[in-house]
Specification:
The protein is an alpha/beta fold. Helices cover 35% and strands 21% of the residues. It has a 5-stranded mixed barrel with strand order 15-16-17-19-18. Strands 1-2-3-4 form a 4-stranded parallel β-sheet, with helices on both faces. It binds S-adenosylmethionine and iron/sulfur cluster.
């Protein structure tokens, strides 16, 4: 979502004649868009600002703005502690960035812009063209969270759940397709909690599926609690909806899920996975895991490992619990570092083995790949298959934006390598 926000900030500031530069030394405004989900986020901000200071030593400093969730969480503390920072702007206030920049240029004293103005934000963004022309583009449809998992900072930094209207989403999606995007990844902290005037995510997906020229649709991140049957059915009915789901589970132990205030059991989680697998055999899954949450016993941890093996997640993102200031779990007794690290290591070793076995199993199979860009080597192209696996092929003709059938020949831990079949007459999967 920060990538989406950063791009939208660039779109907004074009109105006051600011353009993106790849050369930091020529910047007259420096914006650091931050994430606060795990530890050291604030330290990283000071470190990064220190780097900018060094670059501009002895020269006119740029306007320095900190946006995103660290700005929201730390607010005044950042500007008081680091005078080089001109202002902090929260994730629901960045639509005012042009006014903020001009007020700073006019020496205004206000430095903290962290109000929750989600409606005004999207009203403003709707008036500014989304200029992303990537083959695969992000589109925020929902923001914020009302679920308050005990470990998580999101409800405090992104604010309450908010869904954009179907019409504004469709209009932005059409802009992206016009710009050349072939795939849209719908974003939300709880994307499947999407609800606008009684319409759910499945209704929105039906409308997006109709857009001519749009070839693939994905959405992330979902919460098990909101995974209703209409969404499961959409995976059977909508051809453009990819058979891949990122569904964070956090722990394999229902007891820990209860402690975390996740509001679902492992049985309920398994039911969703099984329904999806039944309705669409090609469905694959990835997940997030928090290892060593306070109170996690060896037995709880073993349950997480069993779940990992049972579901065969093709990607698993695992992190040791990180106490976030202001969240209820921050006051709980932490598991000792050695145990936490040992568990994480065990978990990641198994997760990586599952991933490698899965990739090796794809050798000699055929995948439909949407190509996104040329890699440095002149005749190589990078794309993703339906399950979001990175794929690289050699080709003399330009593949960017094309969907081609690829025979997988080899792999490493992350990437599949293959050959296009049928040469230039590759099968096109018409929209
Ligand atoms: N809304 C999604 C859900 O409920 O599953 C997840 C969104 S959260 C922004 C992304 C991931 O960060 C979570 O799935 C969780 O695994 C991880 N995360 C959040 N807070 C964390 C913490 N305090 N310590 C470690 N990992 C954390
Ligand atoms: Fe954070 Fe997701 Fe829980 Fe919301 S549902 S509090 S975003 S982990």
């Amino acid at each position: 979502m920060n990538e989406y926000d950063s791009n939208r900030i660039v779109d907004l500031t074009k109105k006051i004649n600011f353009n993106l530069t790849k050369n930091i030394e020529e910047a007259n405004c420096y914006i650091l868009n931050t994430c606060h989900i795990r530890e050291k986020a604030t330290d990283k901000v000071y470190h990064e600002v220190g780097r900018v200071k060094k670059i501009f030593r002895g020269r006119k400093k740029p306007i320095v703005l900190i946006t995103g969730c660290v700005a929201q969480a730390e607010g005044d503390v950042l500007v008081k502690k680091e005078k080089y920072i001109d202002a902090v702007i929260g994730p629901q206030s960045y639509h005012s960035i042009n006014n903020i920049i001009s007020s700073l240029e006019n020496k205004s004293k206000k430095k903290n812009f962290t109000e929750f103005e989600t409606i005004e934000k999207f009203d403003t963004l709707n008036t500014v063209k989304n200029s992303s022309n990537k083959i695969s583009s992000y589109l925020t449809i929902q923001e914020g969270c009302d679920k308050f998992c005990k470990f998580c900072v999101v409800p405090y930094t992104r604010g309450p759940e908010y869904s954009r209207s179907i019409s504004e989403i469709i209009s932005e999606a059409k802009q992206l397709v016009q710009n050349g995007s072939k795939e849209i990844i719908l974003l939300g902290q709880n994307v499947n909690a999407y609800e606008f005037e009684g319409k759910r995510l499945s209704d929105l997906l039906i409308s997006l599926n109709e857009i001519k020229g749009l070839r693939r649709i994905r959405y992330t991140t979902s919460h098990p609690k909101d995974f209703t049957d209409d969404l499961i059915l959409a995976h059977n009915n909508l051809r453009k909806l990819m058979p891949m789901l990122h569904l964070p589970v956090q722990s394999g132990s229902t007891k820990i899920l209860k402690d975390m205030n996740r509001n679902h059991t492992i049985e309920e989680y398994m039911e969703i996975i099984n329904k999806l697998k039944t309705i669409k055999r090609s469905m694959k899954f990835s997940s997030d895991f928090i290892i060593a949450y306070p109170g996690e016993t060896n037995e709880d941890f073993e349950k997480t490992v069993s779940l990992l093996k049972d579901i065969n997640f093709i990607n698993s993102y695992s992190f040791i619990f990180s106490p976030r200031p202001g969240t209820p779990a921050a006051n709980l007794k932490e598991i000792d570092n050695l145990t936490a690290k040992r568990r994480l290591l065990i978990f990641q070793k198994i997760a990586e083995k599952i991933k490698k076995n899965y990739k090796v199993g794809l050798i000699n199979s055929y995948s439909k790949v949407l190509f996104e860009n040329k890699v440095k080597d002149e005749f190589k192209y990078f794309g993703r298959d339906e399950h979001y696996n990175p794929v690289i092929v050699s080709s003399k003709s330009n593949l960017v934006g094309k969907i081609r059938t690829v025979k997988i020949k080899k792999c490493n831990q992350n990437t599949l390598f293959g050959d296009i079949i049928f040469g230039n007459k590759a099968i096109e999967y018409a929209a």
